[in-house]
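Something for you to look into today, if you have time. Could you write out one complete protein record for me, on any chain you like? Leave the record below and I will have a look.
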Amino acid sequence: MAKTKDNISRKLLNPFKGDKAIWFIFLALVVISLVSVFSSIGYSAATSNTTPEHAFIRHLEFVVATIVVVILMSNFDYRKFSRLSWFGYLLSVVLLIAVLVIGHKTNDAGSGMSRWLLLPGNIRFQPSELAKVIIIVYLARLLAQEKDNLKEWPTLRNIMIPLFIIIGLIVSDNLSTSIIIFLVCFAMMRIAPINVNHWRLTILTLVIVGVLALVVGEKMNIPFLARSETWTSRIDKWMNFNEDELSQESMARMAVATGRFFGVGIGSTIQARLMTQANNDLIYAIIVEETGMFGGIIVFLLYVYLYIRCIKIAIKCRGDFGRMTVIGLGTLIFLQAAIHMSVSVGALPVTGQTLPFISSGGTSYICMGLALGIIQAVAYDNNLAEAKEKHLAAPAKASATQTEVNIEQNKEEKQI
C-alpha cells in the first residue's frame, strides 16, 4: 500500500512524462508563440471587434489548455488509444457530417471559407483538425492488426475505405488538410509496408479524379466542388505573383525580405499591422521579420529535432501500433509546419495551415497538443520498459559479479 502511494506521489510530482527533449522543444515553441502572437494579433483583433489584450488572453487560455492536454495524454497507457480510436473515428465522421449540414461559414479576408461548429462560450470548433489526428491513430491500429496481410489488395482496400471517407468529408472545404492527411497516411502505409503496385494504381486514380474535379468544378455549379475556383485561383496567384498587388501573400513576402538576417527586433513588426492573418496562417513570416533569418532557422530546426526525436521513439517502440502512431503523428506535426513555413516565404500557394504550437487558433492548437501527448505516452512507455529491463538485469549482473569474486577467492585459497 505504501509502495502504491509512493508511486502516485512520484507521478504527481513529475507530470512531464515522456521524452525530455520533446518537452523542451514544445515549451520553447510555446514561448515563441506567446511572444509572436502578442506582437502580431493587433490587426486581427481589430477586424474581429475585440481588443488585442482580450484576443491574446484567449490565445493564452488555449495554450494553457494544450499544456494540460499534453500532460494528461502522456500519462495514459498508449495501447488504450488503439481501442478508443474506433469510437474517435465514428465521432469524427459524425462531426464532419454535422459541420457540412449545420456548420458556420466565415468569409474573413484571406481565410477563404472555412467551416466550424459554434460551441458554448463562443468557441469555434473545427472537426477537421480533430479528424486528422484521429484518423492517423485509427490507421495505425488497422495497420498493426493487418500487418501480415498488407500485401493483399482486399486488405489494403478495407484499410483505405475509412481513410477516404474522412478525406471525402473534408476535401470540399479544406483541400490542404485533406492533402496532409493523405500524405501522412501514405508515409505510414509505405513503412508498413504495402504492395507498391496497388498504391501506385490508387494514386493514379486519385490524380485523375482530382483533375476532373477541378475542371468540372470550374464549369458547373456543384456544391461539393464549390471551392475548386478558390483552389485554382490560389495556384494561379502563386505562379503569376504580382508584386504590386497589396495582399496577404505580398505582405508576408515583404516581412520576410525586411527581416534579413537578424530582423527588425521583437515587437517592431511593420507588416503585421496590416495583415489579418499575421497571428495564424502567416505567423512564420512575422517571426522572420522580427528575428530575421537567424530566428527563422532556429524555429525550423526545432521542428526538425522534434521529428528526429519522434523517429527515435518509434524505433525504440516494440509494439506495431505505437510505432506507426508515433511515425504518423510526428510526420503530421512536421509536415504541417513545413507547409506553413513554405507558404509564409512564398514557396507554396496559400493553404491556411497554422504553424503547430505557435499560431493562434484554439482547435488546431489543442489538437496538435493531443497528437504530441500521444507521442509522449509512447515515449513514457518506452522509458518504463527500459527501466524495467535495467531493474531485472541488475540482480543478474550482481550475481555474475559475485560468482566471479568467488572464483577468484577460490583461486587464491588454492594458491595459498
The radius of gyration is 25 Å. The CA atoms of residues 177 and 363 lie 14 Å apart. Confidence is low (pLDDT under 50) at residues 108-112. The longest strand covers residues 114-119.
